[in-house]
Amino acid sequence: MRPVQLIPHVTSVKPRRRKFHTGSTAQKAPLVSPGIIETEETPHRSLRLKPDILTRLDHMVLRHSDRILIKRLLCGKILDTVACILCADLMVYLQESGFSHSAFTFGIESHISQSNINGALVPPAALISIIQKGLQYVEAEVSINEDGTLFDGRPIESLSLIDAVMPDVVQTRQQAYRDKLAQQQAAAAPPASSTNMQGNAKNGENTANGEENGAHALPNNHADMMEVDGDVEIPQNKAMVLRGHESEVFICAWNPVSDLLASGSGDSTARIWNLSENSTSSSTQLVLRHCIREGGQDVPSNKDVTSLDWNSEGTLLATGSYDGFARIWTKDGNLASTLGQHKGPIFALKWNKKGNFILSAGVDKTTIIWDAHTGEAKQQFPFHSAPALDVDWQSNNTFASCSTDMCIHVCKLGQDRPIKTFQGHTNEVNAIKWDPTGNLLASCSDDMTLKIWSMKQDTCVHDLQAHSKEIYTIKWSPTGPGTNNPNANLMLASASFDSTVRLWDVDRGICIHTLTKHQEPVYSVAFSPDGRHLASGSFDKCVHIWNTQTGALVHSYRGTGGIFEVCWNAAGDKVGASASDGSVCVLDLRK
C-alpha cells in the first residue's frame, strides 16, 4: 500500500515507502457554518454540527488513507454537486500537470461537461478541503454526545479516510467509547469489582499472547481499549519532546556509535539532535536543508524527506527525498554529496555494512547502487514493473528489493539480471528484511500475509497468515546466529493496520505473541539491541515497549501526534519516536 498525498500532487508517496498521506503542504480546511450533507443512503437526513463542535475541531489530525477513497468518492454515495466539484478539481490538476489526454478521458468518463459547475470557479485544493470537512463532520458525529460533550472528555480522535466512509463507523466508535467509559467506571468501583475486572483482563491477555497458530481470528481491540496501567506509563520527566520541525516527522534513526538522533520531515529538512550527556543544550539541533538548483541559486525543494540511514561508523548520514535526490551529510550537518539519477521520489535508502555503497529505491521502478565516495551511480537495476518500495542488503554487493508489482528481486552488483525472483504475494509488497545470517528473507504485503523465503528454493518457506489487515512493516530480532546475542532465539516482528503487533517463531512458523494494546494502525516496530524488548509506534499516538519473552507491556508513552517511526539507541536505554504533529520524542528508559 502506498503513495499519494490528498492535495493537487497525486503522484506523491507516503514517507519512507508506501502509504498515502495528507501531504505536508495541505492546509487545514477553514471551518464553515454548520451545513447539511445528504447522501444516497440518507437522502433527507441532515447532519448538523452539535453545539460544542466548532471549539474542538482544531484538535483533529488528518492521517493516512489510500487511493480507494478517491474511487469511493467518485463512484457515488455523495452529493452530486460535491462529486462535480471533486471531478472539476481533479480535472484541473491533470490539465495543469500536462496530462491533457488523461484530463480529456477523465472528463468524458466522469461526464463533468454535463454538470452545471463552472470549473474555472472551483477554488484551488477544493478536493482536499471537501475531504477534510467531511472528515470533520464524521469525527464530530462520532465523538460528541447530543448535549455537546465529549464521550470521554478528551479531544476528538482522528478517523482514517477509509473508516470515515464505512456505514457503521459512527455506531462502532460510539460503542467503543461507551465500553471504555464503562471500564473506567468499573476500575473506580469497590476493590472486589476491580479485582474481578483485572483478573478477566489478565486471562484475556494470556489467551492472546499464548497463541501458537496461524488462525485469522483476532482479539477484539475495542474490548481492549482500557487505559494503560499507571505502573507502566513513562513519567513526563523521562520523556523529552524535541521541537523544531514544521511538518510531519516521518522517519528517525539513532547514530550507531553516539547519542545523535536524525529525523526527516515534510518540511524538506532532516535534523540531527545531540542528546549526549555533555551536550550544551537538551535539544541542540543541526538543520539539514534539502535544496535544489533553480536559476543558479539553491532554493528549498519543498519535498518530504522520507528515508534516512547512518553508515556503520556513524560518520555519515544518507537521506532520500521526494525531490528524487539522495544526499550524503557529515554528522556535523555538512552536505558531502548529492546523488541524482532517480526520476521521481525515493522511498527507501540503505548503507551496506562496509560503508562503501548506498542502495536506493524509487517511484521510477528502479533501484540504484551508489558509490558513497564519489557520489556516482555504480549500477541501476530496472527490473520492477512498478514503483520499488523497499530494499535490504544481503551482503556488501547483493540486495533484495520489493515493489507494488508484487515481486521481490534479489540482485547483485555487476549482474544484468536478478539472481533470484520470488513471486507469491497477491498485492503490493511493503517491506523486506534479511535475517541476521542473510539466509532467510522476510516480506510483508497488503495481502495480509508474511512470507519467509530462502535462496535455496523458489516457493516460500513459510506463508504466515494471522493478521486481518495489511502488514505495514517487519523487523528481525538481533538474536541467534550471526548476532551479538547468539544464545537467544531468533524472532520476527510484524506490524499491521489491524492495530496489532505479532511476534513469530520462524523456525516453527508460528505466532508466539500477539500484542494488542494499540488502537490504530501500527507503523513501526524496533527491537532493543539485546532483543529483550520491542518498541512499537502507532497512529494512536502511543509508543509501547514490550517484553519479547512474555509479551507483556512494560512501558508506555502517549505523545501528541500519530507515531510514524520508533528506534533504539546503541546502548538500548533510549527510544526515539517521530510523530505526525512535527514532534520528535526521546524516551529515557534508565531506572
UniProtKB/TrEMBL annotation:
Belongs to the WD repeat EBI family. Residues 182-192, 199-217 have a biased composition (Low complexity). WD repeats lie at residues 242-283, 305-329, 339-380, 422-463, 464-514, 515-556. InterPro entries: Ebi-like, LisH, WD40/YVTN_repeat-like_dom_sf, WD40_PAC1, WD40_repeat_CS, WD40_repeat_dom_sf, WD40_rpt. SUPFAM superfamilies: WD40 repeat-like (SSF50978). The keyword Transcription applies. It comes from the Eukaryota. It comes from Hemibagrus wyckioides. It is found in: Nucleus. Pfam families: WD40 (PF00400). One of its GO terms (biological process) is chromatin organization. Keywords: Activator, Chromatin regulator, Nucleus, Repeat, Repressor, Transcription, Transcription regulation, Ubl conjugation pathway, WD repeat. This is F-box-like/WD repeat-containing protein TBL1XR1. Residues 180-221 are annotated as: Disordered. GO terms for cellular component: histone deacetylase complex. GO terms for molecular function: transcription cis-regulatory region binding; transcription corepressor activity. PANTHER family: F-BOX-LIKE_WD REPEAT-CONTAINING PROTEIN TBL1XR1 (PTHR22846:SF40), WD40 REPEAT PROTEIN (PTHR22846). The keyword Repeat applies.
